[in-house]
Every structure is written in structure tokens, then in C-alpha cells.
């Protein structure tokens, strides 16, 4: 199975210090605000000095700078400077601030799952790619995002053209070898994500909890409205 996302499919989240475009989130129906997802891919822009990144205690994060020059301060942990196409992996529970405007590609994965990003310079004559080991996990997802240029991804008898700013995600059995080749030009951001059935159950429990909280909120508003009548 594969999902292909264009600009009209992205979910925009506005913030005082910038905005984020949610490219893809899994499982379907999960919501970033409720922290009930297994993984999430997004592109974010931080415009203000000292912009604070959301703390996500149940997730690990990878931030890859697409453009700009920024310093990330993980308070009490470490400081790192990122130039274009450099990345940082860090625990989502860190209290992190960004200094310097940055356009960043973000991968968030629930702790227990595994996620990787890398940058590939494309060649028009195509290239076969090497892939990370799932380490025995049940499921695998492979993402292809062109920051610049465009290309064609070929896998399992299928092919998909991906243009700049578009996101392709391919879902696979984590215990089976995955093969794909890509031809094109420009800069490709590749993501590799591996997770288990247990991670899906945690996400499902989070969605049920979030649904219950929304119902309580609705009933609370109705109760207050009735008291005023």
C-alpha cells in the first residue's frame, strides 16, 4: 500500500513563531494535538529567535534543516548548530529552543519505534538504494520527499512521480526485504520508519482517550449552557 500527498492534502498548523505543514501522520485519523500517532512527517518554519519546540515526552524526533542556519539549544543537554541539509536526533522530552530562521523537515516516532532521515542527491540515470534493517519489527514505512527537483520512485512493479514539495509513503511488511530505485534530479529527503503491533495499540489507546476527553468537553459545555437557561 502507498499514500501520495500533495499540497492540498497537507494540514496547516499556525503558531505565533511560525507554522507547520503536516505532510503525513499515521494511523489515519490520528491527531498531533492529541499525541495519539505512531509517526508523523511535517515541514515547519520558525521565524522568531528563541522559538520553543513542542515537548513530546512519548516520542523521539529528527529535525533536518532544509534551509537556513540555526542553533538548537536542548536545555540541560547540549547545543548543536545546523546548516542546510544537516540533521539532529533528540528525545522529544527535551526542552528545546531554536535560534535563527529555519525551514525544517521533521520526523516524529513513538518511543519503541525507529525512524531515520537521510539526504540523497539524485541522478537522472537512476540509483538503487540501501535500506536500514527493521530489526525484526512488524511494519515498515518508506517516505520520499523532494525538497528540490523531482523524480520517479520504482518499487514492486509500481512507480510514482514525485515533484518538489510532494510526499510519497510506501507501507510494507517489516520482516520482508524492500527494494526500490529512484531516478530524477534535485534533493530527495528519504524517511525509513519501523514499528510493531504494540505501537499501534498504544496509538489506539491514545485515540480512545482523546475521544473520551472530547466527549467530556462537549457534555461539560452542554451542562453549563443548561444551567444558564
Provide an overview of this structure:
It is globular and about 45 Å long. A hairpin with a 2-residue loop joins strand 2 (11-15) and strand 3 (18-26). The N and C termini lie far apart (52 Å). The protein has a single domain (2-203), classed as Jelly Rolls (Sandwich). It has 229 residues and is mainly beta. It has one helix and 17 strands. Helix content is 14%, strand content 53%. The chain has one helix at 197-228, and strands at 2-5, 11-15, 18-26, 39-46, 51-52, 59-68, 70-74, 78-82, 87-91, 96-99, 102-110, 114-121, 127-128, 139-155, 158-163, 167-173, 181-195. Strands 1, 12, 13, 14, 15, 16 and 17 form a seven-stranded antiparallel sheet that branches. The model is unreliable at 213-229 (pLDDT under 50). This is HutD family protein. InterPro entries: RmlC-like_jellyroll (IPR014710), RmlC_Cupin_sf (IPR011051), Uncharacterised_HutD/Ves (IPR010282).
Characteristic terms for this protein:
single chain; 229 residues; mainly beta; Jelly Rolls; 6-stranded antiparallel beta sheet; globular; disordered C terminus
- SSE class: mainly beta
Shape: globular
> How large is the count of helical segments?
1
Distance between the termini: 52 Å
Total domain units:
1
Rg, Å, rounded: 19 Å
Order of SSEs? EEEEEEEEEEEEEEEEEH
Quickly name the level 1 CATH class. Mainly Beta
